């Protein structure tokens, strides 16, 4: 099978050993998909930023070394496909503005077009919910949802089923995480530093329970950080900045627990998988797909009061790291790759 993975404009796709704190979840997933597809014997190219280095033996289609707009990115991709109209069986998009660009409709006659929906199902397209709009307005586009929660929520909102939407979980390379290291007394949290991640709530919880918390992540909203986070930092509640992949793994593998307080409905939650793979005890708000991913291998709470009570009780120490590791294997990246290949085969057989 010949597959083209289409990344986002201006976002470099890096090999796993070079991933830094600037790499987003989508770029990490694309890197792992390319790696897994090749391991399964398929050809896989990645169309992405010119700043992306070669992924080992993976061929990267470089359009130019700049940060293009969505429109220019689509133009480069269109020109590339026009020069190679029959090269691919599958064209797999990860960005909505590329997947829904009418330039690519003609290619649905020679390849199956797939779009993985990475965002919240509540995003709107005019007066429609986004998945509904993609479903109705782009019938040639085959849609992948990253959790049952994500798909079911939009179905409830629009009061109809979406049988053309396939659910495939995200995955990580679980082998890169150790679950049996000695743990410190310090807790860990990592996310984008922005309102919807509820970082301000976690900082208040940490101060109220007198725990030591290492808070990591990119500051997406500087005003939010300056107003609601920075004034509350102490010697025990510390912002450690953005962290590279190995440093992040060290935190996961040695922390007393991973704490998570989103105030929006997460469509998946890769950090939950990282914590499971590392055997890090998990306490999280029960939002979005997190209960679906976590299962019974962590503690779910509904509000800050319950969160504080869990931390004070010490019950977090009773979570079995081996069971967490077993749970994490469900989300190993090769399972993700096999699921996509099976889905691609279904599409090609139609």
Question: What do these coordinates show?
Answer:
- With 350 residues, this protein is of the alpha/beta class.
- The protein folds into 2 domains: 2-172 and 332-349, Glycogen Phosphorylase B (Rossmann fold, 3-Layer(aba) Sandwich), CATH 3.40.50.2000; 175-330, Rossmann fold, CATH 3.40.50.
- Helix content is 37%, strand content 18%.
- The strands form 3 sheets. The chain has a 7-stranded parallel β-sheet with strand order 3-2-1-4-5-8-9, sandwiched between helices.
- Strand 6 (124-125) and strand 7 (128-129) form a beta hairpin.
- The longest helix is centred in the C-terminal third of the chain and has 17 residues, at 333-349.
- It is globular, with a radius of gyration of 21 Å.
- The two termini are 15 Å apart.
- The mean pLDDT is 89.
How far from one another are the termini?
15 Å
What is the count of β-strands? Answer: 15
The overall average pLDDT, rounded, is 89
CATH H-level superfamily of the largest domain: Glycogen Phosphorylase B
- The total tally of domains equals 2
CATH topology of the largest domain: Rossmann fold
Describe the sheet with the most strands.
7 strands, parallel
Unreliable stretches = none
Please write the string of helix (H) and strand (E) elements: EHEEHEHEEEHEHEEHEHEHEHEHEHHH
The computed structural class is alpha/beta
Q: Judging from the principal axes of the Cα atoms, what is the shape?
A: globular
What's the gyration radius in Å? 21 Å
At CATH level 2, the architecture of the largest domain is: 3-Layer(aba) Sandwich
